[in-house]
Amino acid sequence: MRLGFHISIAGGLAEVVPRAVRRGCTTLQLFTSSPVQLQRPMLNADDCHQFIEQLAAHNIQPHFVHTSYLLNIASPDQKLWERSVEHLSDELRRAKLLNAAGVVLHLGSVGNNGAISPGIDRVVRALDAARIQAQNDVPLILENSAGAGNTLGASIPQIAQILAASQYPNSLQFCLDTAHAFAAGWPVHHPEGLEEVLTELDSALGPERLVLIHANDSRSDFNSHVDRHWHIGQGKMGREAFRTIVNHPRLRKLPFIMETPGTEEDDMRNI
Ligand SMILES: [Zn+2]
Ligand SMILES: [Zn+2]
Q1: What is the pLDDT of residue 39?
Q2: Which of 150, 146, 139, 142 shows the shortest CA–CA distance to 216?
């Protein structure tokens, strides 16, 4: 199976692969710039080329881009929504330069008093607009959420609704974050529950849609709607849950990316 981490880009793109190699990664995820800045310089073509060669040399593949935390494609604030679309299309172009297998994104939040249904429309329009602006077919990989603070993507029917309304559904894929699923009340932590969730995902989103697992344990309770990643086997999901997940005949064929907190030592233990 392919296992890796979200790897820090601190110090530049050249630092990413060495960090992944030290951790024994065979797949990885990265931000293409600091995740808390919307303004950023363009990627340098030589740096991208070198990055792709480093990945190949260490047989790290596939690799994924994750969008910035500042982006909110469900936002009722028109300015923020426009900036988010701009950023997302830029992320698609950068992912192409980096030869990434896709751009993972959160569906955003409609805010405290926001209505859900117009938020879903804004997400669909943002995904389509970013696709048109970017002019490439790098997959956008929608990630499920824990459901805190009116975030979208905490229910399978809602994600299915977004896919069904998109003009470009063929370039939309799905990432299952285990901690978010658990916190949203999806019973992925025991064998029967996991089977139920996978069956529902298949029928609602289509069998080819799930391409990536974010393997995180949860520091918060089942159905708590609180997003707190924790070390594998040490959270509320526990060791048995991950034994089931990593050994599942279907899931084990997918790349697993951990977004667990802490140091390189913590990463070594988690992997
Ligand atoms: Zn995640
Ligand atoms: Zn999370």
Answers
A1: 75
A2: 146
Q: How far is the CA of 31 from the centre of ligand 1 (A)?
A: 12
Distance 46 CA to ligand 2 centre (A): 32
- Render pLDDT for 49-74 as a digit per residue (tens, 0 to 9): 999 999 999 999 999 999 998 899 99
Q: Which residues surround ligand 1, an ion (CB under 5 A)?
A: 177, 214
Ligand 2 centre and the CA of 157: distance in Å? 20
143 CA to centre of ligand 1 in angstroms: 7
| Ligand 2 center–CA 252 separation, angstroms | 21
| pLDDT tens, position by position, 158-194 | 999 999 999 999 999 999 999 999 999 999 999 999 9
**What CATH homologous superfamily does 3-270 map to?**
Divalent-metal-dependent TIM barrel enzymes (3.20.20.150)
Tokens of 94: 């950068």
Other CB atoms within 10 A of residue 50 CB: 14
End-to-end CA, the chain: 12
User: Residue 42: is its pLDDT beyond 90?
Assistant: no
Q: Is the pTM of this model over 0.85?
A: yes
- Give the start-to-end residue ranges of the domains of the chain: 3-270
| 106 Cα: distance to centroid of ligand 2 (angstroms) | 9
